[in-house]
Write a structure and sequence with these properties.
Elements (H helix, E strand, L loop, with lengths): L4 E9 L5 H11 L3 E13 L2 E7 L2 H12 L4 E6 L5 H12 L6 E3 L14 H7 L5 E2 L3 H8 L6 H12 L5 E4 L9 E8 L2 E8 L9 H14 L4 H19 L19
Parallel strand pairs: 1-2, 1-4, 4-5, 5-6, 6-7
Antiparallel strand pairs: 2-3, 7-8, 8-9
Length: 262
């Protein structure tokens, strides 16, 4: 049986925990064939980002043309775009209908605090997104409002959805809601709270990348958005749980993408 093809458009993480590398691991773990378009090369590890080299927009477009000209891509996710010019190149492909079931992970700041993107770049893609997946800090940057509670997450999700995405999930990994991890999904005129037990761990590098990649796989398989988002949350919760006792690197370690420790 031929596997479903999914595409990630993102930056490369030399430490392997986030970005292109994490996305391809998620695709493989969930049974999809992963293809990739690299937007930037980073020097990073679990302790932080040391350097970022954005690729020229032309190089990004050439990669897109190569992949889309040969593979039947069923869903696409974007991560770090790097520059507005690169975002424009990706947005042109989306506008032309070449990026089905687009999941936009608005990567603006790495877990270490290093800036990896600009708001203007993300905003160029939002009108074409089936799902956007900002965390609280990214939602605050996109709306210009504080996002520190579940109530503020819901307000932010509705505000971002008004700007174009069909659905918005504001992820609440940084908000402790009584021992739970709560994400807020807004779309189709409804707002849903997705709850899971909070996993106490310092190993959370690549959580947002993995979540959005898992959504893309489920959309490619035909799941409706609420089902895809719930399945992705369950997957990330397992991956966080599996890696909580790992000792990979001295900082925020990666997730257990393949269930090795579960």
């Amino acid at each position: 049986m031929t596997p479903t093809t999914v595409l990630t458009i993102a930056g490369s993480d030399s430490g392997g925990g986030a970005g292109i590398q994490a996305d391809l691991k998620v695709f493989a773990a969930l049974g999809a064939y992963g293809t990739s378009v690299i937007t930037a090369v980073t020097a990073q590890n679990t302790r932080g980002v040391d350097a970022v080299l954005p690729l020229p927009p032309r190089t990004v477009t050439e990669q897109l043309d190569s992949v889309l000209g040969d593979f039947r891509v069923r869903a696409v996710k974007t991560g770090m775009l790097g520059t507005p010019a690169v975002a424009d190149a990706v947005a042109e492909a989306a506008k032309a209908g070449r990026l089905p079931y687009l999941v936009v992970d608005p990567v603006l700041v790495a877990t270490s605090g290093h800036p990896l993107g600009v708001v203007e770049a993300v905003e160029r893609l939002l009108p074409y997104a089936e799902v956007a997946t900002p965390n609280c800090a990214e939602a605050a940057a996109l709306t210009g409002r504080p996002v520190t509670t579940v109530e503020e997450m819901a307000v932010a999700a509705e505000a971002i959805a008004a700007g174009g995405p069909a659905h918005v999930v504001v992820t609440g990994g940084d908000v402790d809601a009584g021992g739970e991890s709560v994400d807020v999904l807004c779309g189709g005129g409804t707002t849903i709270l997705l709850r899971a037990p909070r996993v106490r761990t310092r190993h959370s590098h690549g959580t947002g990348c993995s979540f959005s990649a898992a959504i893309a796989v489920r959309l490619a398989a035909g799941d409706p958005v609420p089902v895809a988002v719930a399945a992705a949350k369950e997957y990330v919760t397992r991956a966080l749980t599996g890696a909580r006792d790992w000792e990979l690197g001295a900082g925020r370690g990666p997730l257990d993408h393949f269930g090795w420790s579960c």
